Amino acid sequence: MSAPLTLSSSNHLPQSFMAPLEKRPEKEVPIGTNIPIIDIGQPDHVLVEQISKACRDFGLFQVVNHGVPENLMGEAMKVLKEFFELPAEEKAIFLEDGKPNILVKDLSQKAKLYIEGNKTSQGEFYFWKDSLVHGSHPLDEQLVNSWPEKPPTYKEVIGKYAVEVRNLAKRVLDIICQGLGLPLGYLGKELIQNQLMFNNYYPPCPEPSAILGVGGHYDPNLITFLQQDLYALQFLNKDGQWIGVQPIPNAFVVILGLTFSVVTNNVMEGVVHRVLTNQTRDRISIATLFTPANSTIIEPAKQLLSEKQTPFYRPYKYVEYFGNYLSDDSDYDAGLKPYKI
Ligand code: OGA
Ligand code: NI
């Protein structure tokens, strides 16, 4: 395996990034024209209706006028760009023995650089991205100390960003609770105890038709808030078609994860998504993953069950499922297989 892209001085295209034919992106993927764009400034009763419908019909939507300051979103992108542009030696402290961490085991809260791949019957292939991953809640000293020292404003900017995005997530989750008839806080406490930032850097790629930024996947967690500014993201709609998500300046893309399917007993389901590569431009995205703690028991909410509506999943510990999720690539939702009823 070669070094991660930003750390490699070579322009050579390593074979290990070529996706197997069946995983390569189709040429003609339409841009979604009906993906909900929700103005968070509207009254709660309107939001409950709009967001609930978006969660049921799509599992993915964009939010605007959401209260996270635009200049902070811009600053966050800027410090990440500066980080990824640092010379390789400066980033080496986020590696393991000089090598990138590979996303196949438990994720650390401490900042590390990861590469990511997919196992297939023909072997493993890798995605065209580097990710600086770290926890971002609670913002205790030990955690923040693990974040990059360079650029010097990283900790301040990303610290503020983490708090603002968390507030937004809690607001959206409480709106969803209202729509589902769940007590306020049901989704926005234990189920989001951890907050992981995936700061993704996708360099220009010589072969976008054969190489993926990230392959199709469900996010394993409850819900993700994604900041992006260059088209690359696609999701699999309910008819099994890939649809492109056009970036809107200063919006967040909200993506339901696999844990959402379980907690709502499939009333609102997670969505499979992937990222293309771009031949000429690099791309940075900031994905904030709201995640249960390892020890949290995940199960369908009792309020959504009845004699007619029996559970589709048996309870499990989040950490156990997460292990399955990372190790089993046989299907998008293979991590849930042991718990399906
Ligand atoms: C992810 C992800 C999307 C993007 O990090 O899980 O899906 O646009 N990222 O980078
Ligand atoms: Ni994702």
TrEMBL record:
Domain of life, source organism: Eukaryota
Residue stretches spanning the membrane: none
Name the record gives this protein: Hyoscyamine 6-dioxygenase
Keyword entries, A-Z: Iron, Metal-binding, Oxidoreductase, Vitamin C
Gene3D superfamilies: B-lactam Antibiotic, Isopenicillin N Synthase, Chain
Species whose genome carries this gene: Datura stramonium (Jimsonweed)
InterPro entries: DIOX_N (IPR026992), IPNS-like_FE2OG_OXY (IPR044861), IPNS-like_sf (IPR027443), Oxoglu/Fe-dep_dioxygenase_dom (IPR005123), Plant_2OG-oxidoreductases (IPR050295)
Protein family (similarity comment): Belongs to the iron/ascorbate-dependent oxidoreductase family.
Pfam families the UniProt entry points to: 2OG-FeII_Oxy, DIOX_N
Keyword check for Glycoprotein: no
Domain called Fe2OG dioxygenase: residue spans: 193-292
